[in-house]
Amino acid sequence: MPAVSKAQQRFMGMVYATKKGEMTNPSPEVAKAAASIKKTDAKDFASTKHKKLPEKKVAKEAKDFSQRDKIMKKAKRLHKHLYKNLHKKDMSGDVNEGFKTDILTDRKYAKKVADKQKEYKERDARMKYGKNFKKFVKDASAAKDRLRPGEVKRYDKEKGKWVSNKD
Q1: For residue 157, is pLDDT > 90?
Q2: Residue 151: which of 162, 138, 137, 161 has the closest Cα?
Q3: What is the phi/psi pair of residue 87, to 5°?
Q4: Per-domain residue ranges for the chain?
Q5: How far apart are CA 52 and CA 16, in angstroms?
Q6: Does the pLDDT of residue 83 top 60, yes or no?
Q7: Other beta carbons less than 10 A from residue 77's beta carbon
């Protein structure tokens, strides 16, 4: 991939020299870039010719914010606090930062997730046992009530339920 400016080409030259081991004390920026880029990619950037390249690539500032304004009009009031930073392209921070979550929505979501998990568990069991699923369910429920060899159940008044000597 060729460099887009002379400054980028020079910078990638330093990164490539660092990757090769020719540069002994690189700046922190160069060291960070060298750690995050492959040697071949750094070489491609560094080998770009200077002819017809600008000294520094100037980013065009967006003059028309109509698209972002449309998005913000559709956004919830919860997101409005990000509006002033949106034009600056600042996407840092959580959208819900500083706001309480809606407890009812969280409960509904948790119930929905639990229902889905229950449904998936049942589907998995049906896939595992196929046409014999109903028989399996009956056998499983009967096995819960059956006593194991050497097991005795007695009623515990403190707990209010039957307790096994095997548990």
Answers
A1: yes
A2: 162
A3: -65, -25
A4: 1-59, 62-99, 103-164
A5: 22
A6: no
A7: 7
Task: Collect contacts of 8-15 with beta carbons under 8 A, ≥24 apart.
Answer: 8/45, 8/57, 9/45, 9/46, 9/48, 9/50, 9/53, 12/42, 12/45, 12/46, 12/48, 13/46, 15/42, 15/45, 15/46
**Per-residue pLDDT tens for 12-23?**
899 999 989 888
Q: Are 156 and 164 in contact (CB under 8 A)?
A: no
Per-residue model confidence as pLDDT tens digits over 90-138: 555 545 444 455 556 677 888 888 999 999 888 887 787 777 777 877 8
What is this structure's pTM? 0.37
